[in-house]
Amino acid sequence: MYEKYLQPEKNIKLEIQATPPYLSFWGVIDHIKDDYIAVDITGQYVQKDDRQVNCIIPGATRICFFQTIIKGCIDGKIILSMPKPDDINVIQRRKYARVPTNIDVNCFLIGINNKKVNSNKTFPATVMDISGGGVLLNSKLSLPVDTLLVFELALENNSFVLTVKILRNIENMADGSWSLGCKFVGIDDSDRQKIIAYTNKLQLRMKIKSTNI
Question: Which of 26, 61, 92 is the last residue of a domain?
């Protein structure tokens, strides 16, 4: 299924794990060989060592996502190592818009590998972004996909107790932390609507701020 996404002239988003730990920009696939993908970008890109990168190729209803290595830049084109077919994922496009946040939370682990966990211990994490469908957590712990977590989150005048399931787990090579992509589980519809209202309000603020710059 991924073959129709890995094509010349396809737009591709590169999320590079660097210092600062998050650098994101768009490019266009120029050509593809057996062992690499060449991406044309606007401007210049320079690196000394190989860097890990998350790659997103959007489609009409689905998104192609994979993680690979930037080997360097040749003739103004970024050279990506060709990922293994098993490492290329095609997923449904996001139903909800997401906005960046930076909110510290304490997480309870309540389920792992389809088994219930009874523990009062918590671990710290940071909510890096949020949407009506879930959150992106940053944590020092690596947890497997399908792990269930519970945490309390305050957004302006509302407080939520949220249960989430980890859908993806990606290591951030820059600092050794882990990005945990999570979806809400069993969320009350009124709570979801409050979160959507918060994200819409924050998006509007960001748009107004960018317009005034």
Answer: 92
